[in-house]
Structure formats: structure tokens, C-alpha cells
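To the team - HDE complex, inputs and output below.
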Amino acid sequence: MATPGKDAADSTGSATRELSQTGSFLTTAQGLRLPDTDHSLKAGERGPSLLEDFHLREKITHFDHERIPERVVHARGAAAHGVFEAYGTAESVTRAAFLRAGERTDVFVRFSTVLGSRGSADTVRDTRGFAVKFYTGEGTFDLVGNNIPVFFIQDGIKFPDIIHAGKPHPDVEIPQAQSAHDTFWDFVSLHTEATHHVMWNMSDRGIPRSYRTMEGFGVHTFRLVNADGETNLVKFHWKPVAGVHSLVWEEAQIAAGVDPDFHRRDLADGITAGVPLEFELGIQVMPDDGTETFEDIDLLDPTKLVPEELAPVQLIGKLTLDRNPVNYFAETEQVAFHTGHLVPGIEVTNDPLMQARLFSYLDTQLTRLGGPNFAQLPINAPHCPVNDMLRDGMHQQAVPTGIAPYRPNSLDDGLPEVAGAGDGGYVQTARPVSGFTVRENPVSFGDHFTQPAMFYRSLSAVEQAHIVEAFTFELGKVFEQKIKERQLTVLANVDADLCAQVAAGLGLPAPSGTPVEDVPVSAALSQVVVEPGPIAGRKIGVIADDGSDLAGIRKLRTAAEKLGAQVLVIAPHGGTLGKGRSVLPIDRSILTARSIEFDAVLVAAGTAPDTDIKTVLLLQEAYRHLKALGAWGDGGRLLQAVGVDLDGPGVLAGDVVAKAFIDDLVTALGLHRVWDRADAVMASAV
Ligand code: HDE
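Output:
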């Protein structure tokens, strides 16, 4: 028997009265029309407000309770709606219906940082959350992943410890959304199983360019079950169609101040501009042969990854995010993910981190969303029939019929029935469990350094240099000498060269360790691309003034928009350039423009070589951040005036905006950064 109000596959839910500013008359929550909402009821014009003013009290009381507790981790997030379309390539390993060929499933995806408060900045160095809610016909499946494939801890019981260490110091609540402080490094230097995750945090992965250019990982090993009951062990991956790209550190720092909403703005703007975010879902499939180990890698250890060279990522479907939320609070804030939201064909393993998560996600919603009925909130409501026997509780919105919410019963005709596997029931695969109760890790969890060394040695020289810089920066912010020294001993066991460079930067002696010398490398871990990728979502800034070649800018814009990229005109003033029919709107005045917004900066022909300090800063930053620069016609005069070598790497030139010039720009953007300029930047004063 269905429960009225609960079995609606209605994503907007029962609370979907049109609560917007578009209705006719303003009312109270009870529907009473109001003549005035600007003046409280007073005893005379200059008199005190009256207790009987129920509208004043309702308005203020509701306001007083507008905030709910922010998430204890991942408080800052941004989300989008979309659709997932399955290729059917996973059918041999899972019976999950939403993964059958051609199946389309509604999704809601929330991206987040981990450490910062809800109002903190997007571009801080941190792990990013990548939580996907699939509203499948068999029930909701949540894949609650991160942009880093490994985790800090092997056992969930330590989660409060790592988070207490990473959050601001409890006395002064400083620093916000940062790991560059004593308690974080105190913990991770004492707790070497965190080393692998810390290496990823200190790499470019800790500062993604955008959510669009970020990989995602399920982290844990899952057990997938096919229609014949055969099982495989699987790791989930999200591969961004736009490629994997990051910010450079100075850019991330500037953005944190200039535009703390950098990532959420990019997400929302991209979707509004009709350029959806796209990711392919992939799986690494390992045999479930009873060992839960693959090529000597313990698959239950969440600090280990499986190199893609050993188990290739097989693509099984495509996620497209193309719709922004209508209301941040109702959707992005109230969405409740849970690792225990599973569907037939997808099961968990004994990974001790995953096991603890299975408890935590349900538990946390009780405080955050105020009770056990959060699944009735529109954003959390499944898009398939719900027929539970859960009753009452805070914020109950359903009006259940029937008198026998228990089983067995005879009064409601013995309903609801239970479903076996043949009826789509979630029947867990029987797996053997034996052993003594212990508080111990398997010996195989004890190697904390081989994979961090593999990660470091798999990266390009410039990526390695960024890791050195990140460790030196973060440890440079630590006050306690003994913590810095201890972390250097950790690095000495990863890679002697890395340790020596960080030690030199800190002005400390490099300790010796016993790094594993003979580690395999995995090319898939580097994000420096050699083949240009797509440029959708990229932004090209064009510096122009009243004398510029506006036709050239228009031509450039048309070409860029065809590829999903945007051209933004930067001028000395706001308003428009040109006259009459050739008028061109200015997108940014030089006062509101900052280099971080643009992936490439060009100067239009005819633009005066005016070395205004803001223009100089913009071009110098773009140069330092290894972005493509360029000019057509005599626009190069401005680049020269700020000291850019017109023949240097990543500096584009052309007489006019012609095909060759556009092609060069597209290639440069597709390669993401001008890596060839890195050495010159280190050596130059620009
Ligand atoms: Fe989470 N985590 N987590 N986590 N996590 C939460 O759930 C927790 C872990 C992740 O956008 C909380 O609803 C424990 C790994 C994401 O709403 C909380 C442990 C991974 C999000 C929680 C972990 C994640 C969360 C906070 C160790 C990557 C944001 C509010 C056992 C695979 C979801 C909430 C969103 C959120 C607990 C470890 C990813 C408290 C106890 C590993 C993306 O329940």
C-alpha cells in the first residue's frame, strides 16, 4: 500500500507550493493576505511595537531560525542538476538497472571543499568533494566521492582526529579553510598513513581550475554483482571531458580574496552560458577471488590506489550537468548524501573507512536536517515509488493511510510485501565472515610510503616543483620547529630529493630516510597534457579601448563561442566601445578585471600601449601564471611595454584575427598552460 505524499516520484515534492516572488499577494505562512510588511504595529507613530503584531513576530521568528547547522565537513559546496546516461558497458559486472545501455537517470551533484566553513573561499588548498545522487528507478544511489583517489586514514574511527587537526585551532579559530597550520602538520607527521593523501593535497590536485576540470573517485573498493550473481571488486572514477586542470598557487591565493566564489561562479556561469559540465563514469574491475588484493595492493586499504596501467578504467556512462539549482538552501544545502544509499548490483566491502561512513552519513543528517524525515525534502525524495513503514517524527509531511505500519499484519491486507532479488529487492551477496574481535590492522596496511613515492615520481618536473613549493609554503606557516623536522623525516622516506628541496626551503637540515627506490611509475597520475583538449568553459580576456579593432573581437568571439569558450572584453572604462551599429559592450572595466578570471589574455589591434598599473598587473600575472598571451596587429605594443617577449613561448601573434591566429589560441588553451615558460618565469622579474 502506498503512502500518500510519499510515493510521489515528484522531485519538487509536496512542499512545492509556489513559494516565490511571482505570486500575486503577499501572505503570512497561514495564507492571510497582508497590507503592509514594512512597518510594525505600534502604539502611535513614535510609540513601542505591540506584542499582538503576529506578522512582525512570524517574520522575525522565521528569520531567526533560517540557518541550520552547516556540515561538519564539506560545509562549502555548490551543486547542479543533470542526467546520467549509461553506455551499457557495465552490464557484465553489475545488474544495476540504471547502468543498462541507454538508461537515463536524473542526478544532482554537489561539489565541495572539506575544511572550510560555508562562507569560506573556493580556491583554498584542500580535497574536493564530488558527491553524486542518482535518482534511479530502483531507489536512490549516492556515490559520495572526492577528487583524490585515496584518503588520510585507513579506519573511520580516526575521522574526528584528522578533522579536528585540519579545522582551525580551537582557541582562536584560525586559520580558516587551510591545512597550513600546526595542528594539521602535527597530526599528519605523526600519522604516516596520511602521507599519500597529503602528497595529493600538496600537488596541483589540491587547487583545481574548476569543478569542470576535476577528476572524481569513489575511493573505496565496491563489490559489484551481475545478473548471474557473479561478483567483482571495483573502483569508480569520474573523468572530466574538459581534461584535468589546476590553478597555480598564486592564482588560487588571489582568487580566494578577489573572488571567493571562483568555482561556484564558474559552475553556475558555465551552465547559464549553455556549456554543461561533462564527466564520464569509469570502473576499474578487479577479480573477487577471495584475497581482496590485486597485484599486491590491498583493495580494502583506502590509502592505496590501483594504477590505471594495471587495471584500465573502463568507461560506463556519461554525466551531464546542465541545470543550476533554483534555490541554494532548498537544494544544495538540504541535499543529504549517504554511502548507504545503494541499489541492487552495487554493494560495499569491508574497507574499515567505508564501514564507518555507512553509520556516519545517516547520523549526521539527524542534527543537520532536524530529524529522521529528511528523505521527504524535495531534493532528497527518490524518483521512484516509496512504500516504507517509517512513521511520524519531526517534520513529517506525509499523511499515511492504513492502520498497520508493521509486518506481518492482517489488517492492511498483509501489505506491503517484501521483494526478493527477482522483484528488484536488495539482497546482499553472502560473504564469509570469521575471525576474532580485534582492534588491529592487517599487516598489508603498514606500507605508507611506496605509493606516495610512486605518485611523486610519476609527475612531470613542473608538477614536482609545485609539490616542493606547496610543502615549503605549508610547513613555512608552522610555528613548532619539531613538527617541521618530523614532517621532513616523513618526506625522507618518500623521496630524498623532495625532502632535500623542502628542507632547503625551510632552512633546515635534510634528514636521511629509507625511501623505496624501485617504485613503478603511472603516467595516468600526471595532469600535464601533451595533446590539446577541448576548450569548452574557458575564458579569453581581450584588452581593448575606444581605438581597438572591434570587428576582430567579434570574429574571435564567434569562433570561441562555437567551441563553448567565452570572450570577455576588458576596457579602461565600463559601458560600451565604438559607435552606432558597431557598438560593443564592455564585460569588465580594468578596475573590475583580474587575471585569475581568464585562461588567456589578448590585446586587440589598435589598443593604445597604455601602461596603467592595473593593466600591467593583469598581463604580468597572466604571464607568471603560464597563460597564453597574444595580440593582433599593433596590439603587441602593449605586451612589449610590460616586458613580454613577443617571440617567447605561449605568446601568440597575427596581423588580423584570422584562422591561423584562432587555431593557435585554441591549441594553447587546449594545452591549458604554457609549461615551456615555467623556467623563464622562475628566472625573470616579470
Ligand atoms: Fe565524508 N562526511 N566522511 N568522506 N563526505 C560527510 O556527511 C565521514 C569520507 C564526503 O556534498 C558528512 O552529510 C566519515 C571519504 C563528501 O553533502 C559526514 C568519514 C570520502 C561529503 C561525513 C568520511 C568522503 C562528505 C558531513 C570516515 C570520499 C559531502 C555532512 C569514515 C570517498 C557530501 C554530511 C555533500 C560529507 C563523514 C570519509 C566524501 C559527517 C565519518 C573517504 C563528498 O557524515
